[in-house]
Amino acid sequence: MKQFDVVIAGGGPVGWACALACARSLTSGSAAPRVALIDREKVVETANNDAPLSLRVYAVSQRSITQLRSWGVTFDDARCATMDRIVVHTSGSDEPALTLSAKDARQSAIGAVMEHEALTASIVSAALSQGVLRIAGHAVSADLVGSARIVSLADGQLLQTKLVIIADGRDSALAPTLGLEAMSRDYERRGVVAHFQVNKPHYGDARQWFLPDDTILALLPLPDVGGAPAVSMVWSVGESRAAALLAMSPDALLQTVAAATHGAAVATAVLHDAVAFPLSLKRMSDPVAERAIVVGDAAHSVHPLAGQGVNLGLEDAQCLADLMSHSQSQSMDPGHALLTGKYRRQRYAPTLGLALTTDALARLYNLGSWSTLKPVADTGMRVLGRLPAFRRMLSSAAA
Ligand SMILES: Cc1cc2nc3c(=O)[nH]c(=O)nc-3n(C[C@H](O)[C@H](O)[C@H](O)COP(=O)(O)OP(=O)(O)OC[C@H]3O[C@@H](n4cnc5c(N)ncnc54)[C@H](O)[C@@H]3O)c2cc1C
To answer: For 164, what's the count of Cα atoms within 13 Å in the CB-facing half-sphere?
Structure first.
Protein backbone atom coordinates (compact mmCIF):
# COMPACT_ATOMS: atom_id res chain seq x y z
CA MET A 1 0.00 0.00 0.00
CA LYS A 2 1.35 3.46 -0.93
CA GLN A 3 1.86 5.73 2.07
CA PHE A 4 1.56 9.52 2.23
CA ASP A 5 1.40 12.30 4.77
CA VAL A 6 -1.57 13.96 3.05
CA VAL A 7 -4.02 12.63 0.43
CA ILE A 8 -6.48 15.01 -1.21
CA ALA A 9 -9.65 13.56 -2.79
CA GLY A 10 -10.98 15.84 -5.57
CA GLY A 11 -9.13 17.74 -8.28
CA GLY A 12 -11.03 21.05 -8.50
CA PRO A 13 -9.23 24.38 -7.96
CA VAL A 14 -9.54 24.06 -4.17
CA GLY A 15 -8.26 20.47 -4.00
CA TRP A 16 -5.23 21.35 -6.11
CA ALA A 17 -4.58 24.52 -4.09
CA CYS A 18 -4.62 22.41 -0.90
CA ALA A 19 -2.22 19.91 -2.49
CA LEU A 20 0.13 22.73 -3.47
CA ALA A 21 -0.13 24.34 -0.01
CA CYS A 22 0.70 21.04 1.75
CA ALA A 23 3.52 20.08 -0.62
CA ARG A 24 5.21 23.47 -0.18
CA SER A 25 5.06 23.16 3.59
CA LEU A 26 5.93 19.46 4.00
CA THR A 27 9.40 19.18 2.59
CA SER A 28 11.33 15.97 3.10
CA GLY A 29 14.84 14.73 2.55
CA SER A 30 13.61 11.72 0.59
CA ALA A 31 12.53 11.73 -3.04
CA ALA A 32 9.23 9.97 -2.26
CA PRO A 33 6.19 12.26 -2.62
CA ARG A 34 4.47 13.04 0.67
CA VAL A 35 1.33 14.52 -0.88
CA ALA A 36 -1.00 12.82 -3.40
CA LEU A 37 -4.18 14.05 -5.08
CA ILE A 38 -6.89 11.78 -6.46
CA ASP A 39 -8.40 13.33 -9.54
CA ARG A 40 -11.19 11.69 -11.50
CA GLU A 41 -11.16 14.30 -14.29
CA LYS A 42 -8.54 15.11 -16.88
CA VAL A 43 -6.81 18.45 -16.39
CA VAL A 44 -7.78 20.70 -19.32
CA GLU A 45 -4.69 22.49 -20.63
CA THR A 46 -5.62 26.02 -21.66
CA ALA A 47 -2.21 27.67 -21.97
CA ASN A 48 -1.14 28.60 -25.47
CA ASN A 49 -4.31 27.29 -27.01
CA ASP A 50 -7.01 29.27 -28.72
CA ALA A 51 -9.94 27.13 -27.59
CA PRO A 52 -13.08 29.19 -26.94
CA LEU A 53 -13.48 30.51 -23.40
CA SER A 54 -15.22 28.00 -21.16
CA LEU A 55 -18.56 29.04 -19.64
CA ARG A 56 -17.40 28.31 -16.09
CA VAL A 57 -15.63 31.53 -15.10
CA TYR A 58 -14.84 32.88 -11.64
CA ALA A 59 -14.18 36.30 -10.19
CA VAL A 60 -10.97 35.49 -8.33
CA SER A 61 -10.09 38.11 -5.71
CA GLN A 62 -6.78 39.95 -5.73
CA ARG A 63 -6.02 38.43 -2.33
CA SER A 64 -6.41 34.90 -3.77
CA ILE A 65 -4.29 35.79 -6.81
CA THR A 66 -1.52 37.24 -4.64
CA GLN A 67 -1.60 34.14 -2.41
CA LEU A 68 -1.38 31.76 -5.39
CA ARG A 69 1.40 33.80 -7.05
CA SER A 70 3.41 33.65 -3.83
CA TRP A 71 3.13 29.84 -4.10
CA GLY A 72 4.63 29.88 -7.60
CA VAL A 73 1.38 29.81 -9.61
CA THR A 74 1.58 31.71 -12.91
CA PHE A 75 -1.50 32.76 -14.84
CA ASP A 76 -2.04 32.97 -18.58
CA ASP A 77 -2.88 36.69 -19.00
CA ALA A 78 -4.46 36.00 -22.40
CA ARG A 79 -7.25 34.07 -20.64
CA CYS A 80 -7.79 36.49 -17.72
CA ALA A 81 -9.61 39.83 -17.52
CA THR A 82 -8.62 42.30 -14.81
CA MET A 83 -11.50 43.49 -12.64
CA ASP A 84 -11.05 47.11 -11.54
CA ARG A 85 -14.51 47.96 -10.22
CA ILE A 86 -17.73 46.31 -9.04
CA VAL A 87 -20.72 48.48 -9.94
CA VAL A 88 -24.02 47.60 -8.24
CA HIS A 89 -27.48 48.81 -9.32
CA THR A 90 -30.64 48.33 -7.23
CA SER A 91 -34.38 48.68 -7.99
CA GLY A 92 -33.82 48.91 -11.73
CA SER A 93 -32.14 52.31 -11.26
CA ASP A 94 -29.70 53.49 -13.94
CA GLU A 95 -27.59 55.21 -11.27
CA PRO A 96 -25.26 52.81 -9.45
CA ALA A 97 -26.13 52.41 -5.75
CA LEU A 98 -22.61 51.29 -4.88
CA THR A 99 -19.25 51.20 -6.63
CA LEU A 100 -16.34 49.24 -5.20
CA SER A 101 -12.99 49.98 -6.75
CA ALA A 102 -9.38 48.88 -6.75
CA LYS A 103 -8.50 52.48 -5.89
CA ASP A 104 -10.67 52.41 -2.75
CA ALA A 105 -9.16 49.02 -1.84
CA ARG A 106 -5.66 50.48 -2.41
CA GLN A 107 -4.90 47.52 -4.68
CA SER A 108 -3.81 47.31 -8.31
CA ALA A 109 -7.08 45.46 -9.09
CA ILE A 110 -10.16 44.05 -7.35
CA GLY A 111 -9.30 40.70 -8.91
CA ALA A 112 -9.46 38.87 -12.23
CA VAL A 113 -12.05 36.86 -14.08
CA MET A 114 -10.71 33.54 -15.25
CA GLU A 115 -11.99 30.19 -16.43
CA HIS A 116 -12.30 27.25 -14.06
CA GLU A 117 -10.04 25.26 -16.40
CA ALA A 118 -7.33 27.95 -16.69
CA LEU A 119 -7.30 28.55 -12.92
CA THR A 120 -7.14 24.82 -12.18
CA ALA A 121 -4.45 24.13 -14.82
CA SER A 122 -2.26 26.95 -13.41
CA ILE A 123 -2.47 25.51 -9.89
CA VAL A 124 -1.93 21.93 -11.12
CA SER A 125 1.26 22.92 -12.90
CA ALA A 126 2.70 24.53 -9.74
CA ALA A 127 1.58 21.58 -7.57
CA LEU A 128 3.17 18.97 -9.86
CA SER A 129 6.44 20.88 -9.92
CA GLN A 130 6.30 20.96 -6.12
CA GLY A 131 6.22 17.12 -6.11
CA VAL A 132 2.50 16.37 -5.67
CA LEU A 133 1.66 12.92 -7.05
CA ARG A 134 -1.47 12.90 -9.23
CA ILE A 135 -3.42 9.65 -9.02
CA ALA A 136 -6.16 9.27 -11.65
CA GLY A 137 -9.22 7.62 -10.14
CA HIS A 138 -12.39 7.88 -8.12
CA ALA A 139 -12.14 7.86 -4.31
CA VAL A 140 -14.91 5.86 -2.64
CA SER A 141 -14.07 5.92 1.06
CA ALA A 142 -11.53 7.12 3.63
CA ASP A 143 -11.69 4.76 6.62
CA LEU A 144 -9.94 5.38 9.93
CA VAL A 145 -7.67 2.41 10.69
CA GLY A 146 -5.54 2.84 13.80
CA SER A 147 -3.60 6.08 13.44
CA ALA A 148 -4.13 6.42 9.68
CA ARG A 149 -6.83 6.87 7.06
CA ILE A 150 -7.03 4.29 4.29
CA VAL A 151 -8.41 5.85 1.13
CA SER A 152 -9.99 3.31 -1.27
CA LEU A 153 -10.32 3.98 -4.98
CA ALA A 154 -12.97 2.45 -7.23
CA ASP A 155 -10.26 0.50 -9.11
CA GLY A 156 -9.18 -1.22 -5.89
CA GLN A 157 -6.10 0.91 -5.10
CA LEU A 158 -5.55 1.66 -1.40
CA LEU A 159 -3.63 4.68 -0.11
CA GLN A 160 -2.55 5.11 3.50
CA THR A 161 -2.33 8.66 4.82
CA LYS A 162 -1.93 10.57 8.08
CA LEU A 163 -4.44 13.19 6.93
CA VAL A 164 -7.13 13.06 4.24
CA ILE A 165 -8.50 16.26 2.74
CA ILE A 166 -11.92 15.91 1.13
CA ALA A 167 -12.35 18.36 -1.78
CA ASP A 168 -14.91 16.58 -3.95
CA GLY A 169 -17.22 19.58 -4.51
CA ARG A 170 -20.74 20.60 -3.60
CA ASP A 171 -22.30 17.13 -4.06
CA SER A 172 -19.57 15.50 -1.95
CA ALA A 173 -20.19 11.78 -1.57
CA LEU A 174 -17.12 11.31 0.65
CA ALA A 175 -17.89 13.77 3.48
CA PRO A 176 -21.01 11.86 4.65
CA THR A 177 -18.96 8.63 4.80
CA LEU A 178 -16.87 10.31 7.54
CA GLY A 179 -20.03 10.76 9.62
CA LEU A 180 -20.05 14.53 8.97
CA GLU A 181 -23.38 16.21 8.37
CA ALA A 182 -24.21 19.26 6.30
CA MET A 183 -27.10 21.71 6.34
CA SER A 184 -28.21 22.49 2.81
CA ARG A 185 -30.86 24.61 1.20
CA ASP A 186 -31.88 24.44 -2.45
CA TYR A 187 -32.56 28.05 -3.47
CA GLU A 188 -34.84 26.80 -6.28
CA ARG A 189 -33.03 29.29 -8.44
CA ARG A 190 -30.76 28.74 -11.43
CA GLY A 191 -27.65 30.68 -12.45
CA VAL A 192 -28.07 31.14 -16.21
CA VAL A 193 -24.62 31.66 -17.69
CA ALA A 194 -23.74 32.93 -21.20
CA HIS A 195 -20.85 34.84 -22.81
CA PHE A 196 -21.59 37.87 -25.00
CA GLN A 197 -19.66 40.13 -27.31
CA VAL A 198 -20.42 43.77 -26.38
CA ASN A 199 -20.42 47.01 -28.36
CA LYS A 200 -18.06 48.97 -26.09
CA PRO A 201 -15.08 48.20 -23.80
CA HIS A 202 -15.99 47.05 -20.29
CA TYR A 203 -13.00 48.92 -18.74
CA GLY A 204 -12.64 46.13 -16.16
CA ASP A 205 -16.09 46.77 -14.65
CA ALA A 206 -18.04 43.88 -13.14
CA ARG A 207 -21.65 45.03 -13.07
CA GLN A 208 -24.53 43.69 -11.03
CA TRP A 209 -28.21 44.55 -11.12
CA PHE A 210 -30.55 43.63 -8.23
CA LEU A 211 -33.67 43.79 -10.40
CA PRO A 212 -37.22 44.64 -9.26
CA ASP A 213 -38.46 41.16 -10.36
CA ASP A 214 -36.31 39.48 -7.68
CA THR A 215 -33.64 38.32 -10.10
CA ILE A 216 -29.94 39.22 -9.99
CA LEU A 217 -28.06 39.86 -13.20
CA ALA A 218 -24.25 40.08 -13.22
CA LEU A 219 -21.94 40.81 -16.13
CA LEU A 220 -18.28 40.01 -15.56
CA PRO A 221 -15.50 41.33 -17.80
CA LEU A 222 -13.86 38.74 -20.07
CA PRO A 223 -10.66 38.94 -22.10
CA ASP A 224 -11.30 40.17 -25.65
CA VAL A 225 -12.65 37.49 -27.96
CA GLY A 226 -11.59 37.81 -31.61
CA GLY A 227 -10.33 41.34 -30.83
CA ALA A 228 -13.72 42.48 -29.50
CA PRO A 229 -14.76 43.15 -25.88
CA ALA A 230 -16.75 40.41 -24.20
CA VAL A 231 -18.60 39.79 -20.92
CA SER A 232 -19.93 36.77 -19.06
CA MET A 233 -23.47 36.82 -17.69
CA VAL A 234 -24.73 35.06 -14.57
CA TRP A 235 -28.46 35.68 -14.16
CA SER A 236 -29.98 34.21 -10.98
CA VAL A 237 -33.60 33.48 -11.82
CA GLY A 238 -36.43 31.10 -10.91
CA GLU A 239 -36.61 27.72 -12.62
CA SER A 240 -39.30 28.55 -15.19
CA ARG A 241 -37.55 31.80 -16.13
CA ALA A 242 -34.29 29.88 -16.54
CA ALA A 243 -36.01 27.44 -18.91
CA ALA A 244 -37.42 30.38 -20.89
CA LEU A 245 -33.99 32.08 -21.15
CA LEU A 246 -32.36 28.83 -22.32
CA ALA A 247 -35.04 28.34 -24.97
CA MET A 248 -34.62 31.86 -26.43
CA SER A 249 -33.02 32.58 -29.77
CA PRO A 250 -29.70 34.48 -29.49
CA ASP A 251 -31.37 37.72 -30.65
CA ALA A 252 -34.19 37.40 -28.11
CA LEU A 253 -31.67 36.73 -25.31
CA LEU A 254 -29.62 39.81 -26.27
CA GLN A 255 -32.76 41.98 -26.31
CA THR A 256 -33.91 40.60 -22.95
CA VAL A 257 -30.54 41.41 -21.34
CA ALA A 258 -30.51 44.91 -22.89
CA ALA A 259 -34.04 45.55 -21.57
CA ALA A 260 -33.20 44.30 -18.05
CA THR A 261 -30.18 46.62 -17.84
CA HIS A 262 -32.03 49.58 -19.43
CA GLY A 263 -29.62 49.46 -22.36
CA ALA A 264 -26.52 49.79 -20.14
CA ALA A 265 -25.19 46.53 -21.54
CA VAL A 266 -25.55 46.25 -25.28
CA ALA A 267 -24.49 42.77 -26.25
CA THR A 268 -24.07 42.20 -29.95
CA ALA A 269 -23.58 38.43 -30.16
CA VAL A 270 -23.95 35.32 -28.02
CA LEU A 271 -20.53 33.64 -27.95
CA HIS A 272 -21.61 30.47 -26.21
CA ASP A 273 -25.06 28.93 -25.76
CA ALA A 274 -26.50 29.66 -22.32
CA VAL A 275 -26.46 26.94 -19.64
CA ALA A 276 -28.05 26.89 -16.18
CA PHE A 277 -26.58 25.79 -12.82
CA PRO A 278 -28.66 24.99 -9.71
CA LEU A 279 -28.00 27.39 -6.82
CA SER A 280 -27.87 26.21 -3.23
CA LEU A 281 -26.47 26.93 0.20
CA LYS A 282 -24.54 24.21 1.96
CA ARG A 283 -22.63 24.31 5.19
CA MET A 284 -21.11 21.62 7.38
CA SER A 285 -21.51 22.43 11.03
CA ASP A 286 -18.14 20.75 11.55
CA PRO A 287 -15.79 20.10 8.61
CA VAL A 288 -13.31 18.10 10.73
CA ALA A 289 -13.21 14.41 11.71
CA GLU A 290 -10.30 12.40 13.10
CA ARG A 291 -7.45 12.73 10.56
CA ALA A 292 -9.84 14.31 8.01
CA ILE A 293 -10.71 17.83 6.89
CA VAL A 294 -13.41 18.81 4.38
CA VAL A 295 -12.64 21.90 2.25
CA GLY A 296 -14.07 24.04 -0.57
CA ASP A 297 -17.59 23.51 -1.86
CA ALA A 298 -17.73 20.09 -0.19
CA ALA A 299 -17.77 21.95 3.16
CA HIS A 300 -19.43 25.23 2.22
CA SER A 301 -21.08 26.39 -0.97
CA VAL A 302 -22.75 29.78 -1.24
CA HIS A 303 -24.98 31.74 -3.63
CA PRO A 304 -22.75 33.13 -6.40
CA LEU A 305 -24.07 36.69 -5.99
CA ALA A 306 -20.90 37.74 -4.17
CA GLY A 307 -18.62 35.74 -6.52
CA GLN A 308 -16.77 34.39 -3.48
CA GLY A 309 -17.18 30.58 -3.62
CA VAL A 310 -13.78 29.67 -4.99
CA ASN A 311 -12.09 32.41 -2.94
CA LEU A 312 -13.45 30.91 0.27
CA GLY A 313 -11.98 27.52 -0.73
CA LEU A 314 -8.61 29.13 -1.52
CA GLU A 315 -8.66 30.61 1.99
CA ASP A 316 -9.13 27.04 3.31
CA ALA A 317 -5.92 26.15 1.43
CA GLN A 318 -4.10 29.13 3.00
CA CYS A 319 -5.14 27.92 6.46
CA LEU A 320 -3.81 24.42 5.65
CA ALA A 321 -0.53 25.92 4.44
CA ASP A 322 -0.05 27.57 7.84
CA LEU A 323 -0.94 24.37 9.73
CA MET A 324 1.35 22.17 7.64
CA SER A 325 4.25 24.63 8.09
CA HIS A 326 3.65 24.39 11.82
CA SER A 327 3.58 20.57 11.63
CA GLN A 328 6.86 20.62 9.68
CA SER A 329 8.65 23.04 11.98
CA GLN A 330 7.47 21.21 15.14
CA SER A 331 8.00 17.72 13.64
CA MET A 332 4.33 17.02 14.30
CA ASP A 333 2.11 14.39 12.68
CA PRO A 334 0.17 16.34 9.96
CA GLY A 335 -3.08 14.65 11.03
CA HIS A 336 -2.63 15.49 14.73
CA ALA A 337 -5.87 16.53 16.47
CA LEU A 338 -4.22 19.78 17.63
CA LEU A 339 -3.78 20.82 13.99
CA THR A 340 -7.20 19.71 12.73
CA GLY A 341 -8.79 21.39 15.77
CA LYS A 342 -6.98 24.61 14.89
CA TYR A 343 -8.32 24.36 11.33
CA ARG A 344 -11.89 24.04 12.72
CA ARG A 345 -11.48 27.14 14.90
CA GLN A 346 -9.82 29.28 12.23
CA ARG A 347 -12.30 28.54 9.42
CA TYR A 348 -15.52 28.63 11.46
CA ALA A 349 -16.13 32.40 11.53
CA PRO A 350 -15.12 33.33 7.94
CA THR A 351 -17.19 30.54 6.35
CA LEU A 352 -20.20 31.27 8.58
CA GLY A 353 -19.91 35.03 7.91
CA LEU A 354 -19.99 34.61 4.13
CA ALA A 355 -22.82 32.05 4.27
CA LEU A 356 -24.97 34.42 6.38
CA THR A 357 -24.22 37.50 4.24
CA THR A 358 -24.88 35.84 0.89
CA ASP A 359 -27.98 34.08 2.24
CA ALA A 360 -29.41 37.38 3.56
CA LEU A 361 -28.76 39.11 0.22
CA ALA A 362 -30.28 36.16 -1.66
CA ARG A 363 -33.42 36.33 0.52
CA LEU A 364 -33.66 40.08 -0.02
CA TYR A 365 -32.92 40.28 -3.73
CA ASN A 366 -33.44 36.82 -5.25
CA LEU A 367 -36.05 34.90 -3.27
CA GLY A 368 -38.54 37.70 -2.62
CA SER A 369 -38.66 36.58 1.05
CA TRP A 370 -38.28 39.99 2.69
CA SER A 371 -39.94 42.24 0.11
CA THR A 372 -40.96 44.83 2.72
CA LEU A 373 -37.30 45.30 3.67
CA LYS A 374 -36.09 45.75 0.11
CA PRO A 375 -36.73 49.52 -0.20
CA VAL A 376 -34.95 50.06 3.14
CA ALA A 377 -31.99 47.97 1.97
CA ASP A 378 -31.87 49.83 -1.37
CA THR A 379 -31.81 53.20 0.39
CA GLY A 380 -29.22 51.94 2.86
CA MET A 381 -26.97 50.77 0.06
CA ARG A 382 -27.27 54.09 -1.79
CA VAL A 383 -26.62 56.17 1.34
CA LEU A 384 -23.73 54.02 2.55
CA GLY A 385 -22.39 53.84 -1.02
CA ARG A 386 -21.75 57.60 -0.81
CA LEU A 387 -19.56 57.23 2.25
CA PRO A 388 -15.89 56.87 1.23
CA ALA A 389 -15.02 54.98 4.44
CA PHE A 390 -17.76 52.40 3.81
CA ARG A 391 -16.72 52.01 0.16
CA ARG A 392 -13.09 51.57 1.21
CA MET A 393 -14.08 48.89 3.74
CA LEU A 394 -16.22 46.93 1.23
CA SER A 395 -13.71 47.37 -1.60
CA SER A 396 -10.95 45.97 0.61
CA ALA A 397 -13.19 43.03 1.58
CA ALA A 398 -13.93 42.26 -2.09
CA ALA A 399 -10.33 42.57 -3.34
C1 LIG B 1 -23.36 29.76 -11.59
C2 LIG B 1 -22.15 29.79 -10.68
C3 LIG B 1 -21.26 30.85 -10.75
C4 LIG B 1 -20.16 30.91 -9.89
N5 LIG B 1 -19.36 32.01 -9.95
C6 LIG B 1 -18.34 32.10 -9.08
C7 LIG B 1 -17.46 33.26 -9.08
O8 LIG B 1 -17.62 34.21 -9.86
N9 LIG B 1 -16.44 33.32 -8.19
C10 LIG B 1 -16.25 32.28 -7.29
O11 LIG B 1 -15.32 32.39 -6.47
N12 LIG B 1 -17.01 31.16 -7.29
C13 LIG B 1 -18.05 31.05 -8.15
N14 LIG B 1 -18.83 29.93 -8.12
C15 LIG B 1 -18.53 28.85 -7.16
C16 LIG B 1 -17.45 27.88 -7.67
O17 LIG B 1 -17.92 27.18 -8.80
C18 LIG B 1 -17.07 26.88 -6.58
O19 LIG B 1 -16.89 27.57 -5.37
C20 LIG B 1 -15.78 26.12 -6.92
O21 LIG B 1 -15.93 25.33 -8.09
C22 LIG B 1 -15.41 25.19 -5.74
O23 LIG B 1 -14.23 24.46 -6.07
P24 LIG B 1 -13.96 23.04 -5.43
O25 LIG B 1 -12.60 22.66 -5.88
O26 LIG B 1 -14.29 23.04 -3.98
O27 LIG B 1 -15.06 22.08 -6.09
P28 LIG B 1 -15.26 21.65 -7.60
O29 LIG B 1 -14.82 22.71 -8.53
O30 LIG B 1 -16.68 21.18 -7.70
O31 LIG B 1 -14.27 20.41 -7.80
C32 LIG B 1 -14.51 19.14 -7.21
C33 LIG B 1 -13.69 18.12 -7.98
O34 LIG B 1 -13.71 16.87 -7.31
C35 LIG B 1 -13.88 15.83 -8.27
N36 LIG B 1 -14.49 14.69 -7.56
C37 LIG B 1 -15.75 14.58 -7.09
N38 LIG B 1 -15.91 13.40 -6.48
C39 LIG B 1 -14.73 12.74 -6.56
C40 LIG B 1 -14.27 11.48 -6.10
N41 LIG B 1 -15.08 10.66 -5.42
N42 LIG B 1 -12.99 11.12 -6.35
C43 LIG B 1 -12.15 11.95 -7.02
N44 LIG B 1 -12.52 13.17 -7.48
C45 LIG B 1 -13.80 13.56 -7.25
C46 LIG B 1 -14.79 16.46 -9.31
O47 LIG B 1 -14.70 15.74 -10.53
C48 LIG B 1 -14.19 17.86 -9.40
O49 LIG B 1 -13.10 17.89 -10.27
C50 LIG B 1 -19.93 29.84 -8.96
C51 LIG B 1 -20.79 28.74 -8.93
C52 LIG B 1 -21.90 28.73 -9.75
C53 LIG B 1 -22.85 27.55 -9.66
So the answer is: 30
End-to-end CA distance of the chain: 44
According to CATH, the superfamily of the domain at 64-116+186-280+364-398 is: D-Amino Acid Oxidase, subunit A, domain 2 (3.30.9.10)
Ligand 1 centroid distance, CA of 56 (Å):
10
Domain with CATH 3.50.50.60 in the chain: 2-43+117-184+281-362
pLDDT tens string for the chain (399 positions)?
Answer: 899 999 999 999 999 999 999 999 987 656 667 999 999 988 777 666 677 889 999 999 999 999 999 999 999 888 999 999 999 998 767 788 889 899 888 889 999 999 999 999 999 999 999 999 999 999 999 999 999 999 999 999 999 999 999 999 999 999 999 999 999 999 999 999 999 999 889 999 999 999 999 999 999 999 999 889 999 999 999 999 999 999 999 999 999 999 999 888 778 999 988 999 999 999 998 999 999 999 999 999 999 888 888 999 999 999 999 999 999 999 999 999 999 999 999 999 999 998 998 898 888 888 887 777 878 777 777 777 777 776 777 777 777
| Nearest C-alpha neighbor of 162 from the set 139, 178, 145 | 145
Q: Is the CATH number 3.40.640.10 carried by domain 2-43+117-184+281-362? A: no
Which residues 6+ apart lie within 8 Å of 179 measured at CB? 289
The answer, yes or no, to whether any atom of ligand 1 lies below 6 A from the CB of 316, is no
Whole-angstrom Cα distance, residue 134 to residue 265? 43
Q: How far is the CA of 243 from the centre of ligand 1 (A)?
A: 23
**Atom 35 of ligand 1, residue of closest alpha carbon:** 10
CATH 3.30.9.10 location in the chain? 64-116+186-280+364-398
303 CA → ligand 1 middle, Å: 13
Residue of 310, 311, 316, 358 with the most ligand 1 atoms within 8 Å of its CB, for mutation: 310
Ligand 1 contact via 304 beta carbon (within 6 Å): yes
Please list, residue by residue across 83-122, b when 16 or more beta carbons sit within 10 angstroms of its beta carbon and e when fewer do.
bbbbbbbbbeeeebbbbbbbebbebebbbbbbbbbbbbbb
- Counting ligand 1 atoms within 8 A of each CB, the residue from 53, 138, 282, 297 with the most, and so the one to mutate, is 297
